[in-house]
Amino acid sequence: MACYFLEELLTRGRVCVLTPEPVSLEDHDRVWGTRLAGSELEVKVLHSPLLSLLRRLRVPTVRLEIHLLCRAAKKLRSRFTYCTVIPGELDLGAPCLQVLYYPFLSMEQLKGEVRSLKPFWWRLLAHLNIWASQWLHHWQDSRISESFIVVISRYIGALVQDVYHSTHNEVLFPPPAALPAVESKDRRMAVLAIGRITRVKGWTELVSLVDKVRARGHELGLTIVGFVEDPEYHRELELLRKTRADWFRLRADTSREELTAEIAEHEFGIHIMEGEHYGMGVAEMMLGGCLTLVHDSGGQVEIVTEPELRFTDLDDGAEKISRILDDPDERERLKASQCARRRDYSLEAFRESFHRCMDAYENWLNVNS
């Protein structure tokens, strides 16, 4: 989402990005289909001898990095009309525009987590990390609470409200990364799943779900497409694939064009993760014409609104998929229902909502300045 956000920000004026590490705009453009490379986007990299030393010593630096970013951004922000944090929350010394995927960085939450750490020496190191971070930049959750906050789903909005008790939240659905798919009637009778290849996504459980559907007599295939974030988990999935090679495909690190082709070839899409923040892959599959099912939780239910396409566990999922496979008329009715809402989750809808949010933020700045 950050790449699309920056691309749209450039239409409103000069943009400078402060980042903890060098970034390749060309690589981001290739993955997301944006045009940031060659634009007037200014990129500033945070240079810190302290961070460099700690990284060489393999000392965890995430919190220190965040506080150093906050300190550097405070010095820069006076040169710009407004300051934006994408993604995640930062305390920049005064209220600003915060784009949150999830409320990860609350100091009060962090202190609570540290108090439960074991053994004692690990808890002591964590306290020292917090002390050093606060010495570099005194973080206050209240400055985030007072900010103009944009969230990626109403589900995340509720979590942010619980943590920060913020006074102003706007919802901005992330745009799809895949290219628009060509409508096709010759789709494979298989389910497609898109997402990072990491344990939290629940891909091994998805294999079990398809096992259950096939045990009911349905010749259903499965394809998982995603970037490898956890190599060990990828190896586990490869072992499962080898024992189901006639119907299970696993594709890692594909291009956007390859992803789009996969979407166009599959009859169904599915996302099994519980409590997904939003589900860009869900929106991409639905936009591409896949009849898409999701776990009945998180932000993904804001995309898949049909109760017939939401499941609570593996058995419920197998039952609902089997019911759809047994009833072609019901399948077409549900596809038409999803098709009618496609534009709500499109890149065009994102652009329109983005500029509405930015207009609201500028009005908010005028009122609160």
Structure, explained:
With 369 residues, this protein is α/β, with parallel strands linked by helices. It has 15 helices and twelve strands. The strands form three sheets. It has a six-stranded parallel sheet with strand order 9-8-7-10-11-12, sandwiched between helices. The radius of gyration is 22 Å and the shape is globular.
Q: Distance between the terminal alpha carbons, to the nearest Å?
A: 28 Å
Radius of gyration: 22 Å
Q: Provide a count of the helices.
A: 15
Number of beta-strand segments:
12
β-strand amount: 5-15%
Structural class: alpha/beta
Could you give a short account of the major beta sheet?
6 strands, parallel
Question: How helical, in percent, are the residues?
Answer: 40-55%
The stretches of 5 or more residues where confidence is low (pLDDT under 50) are: none
* Sequence of strands across the biggest β-sheet: 9-8-7-10-11-12
Order of helices and strands: HEHEHHEEHHHEHEEHEHEHEHEEHHH
**What shape does the CA trace take?**
globular
Q: On the 0-100 scale, what is the average pLDDT?
A: 91
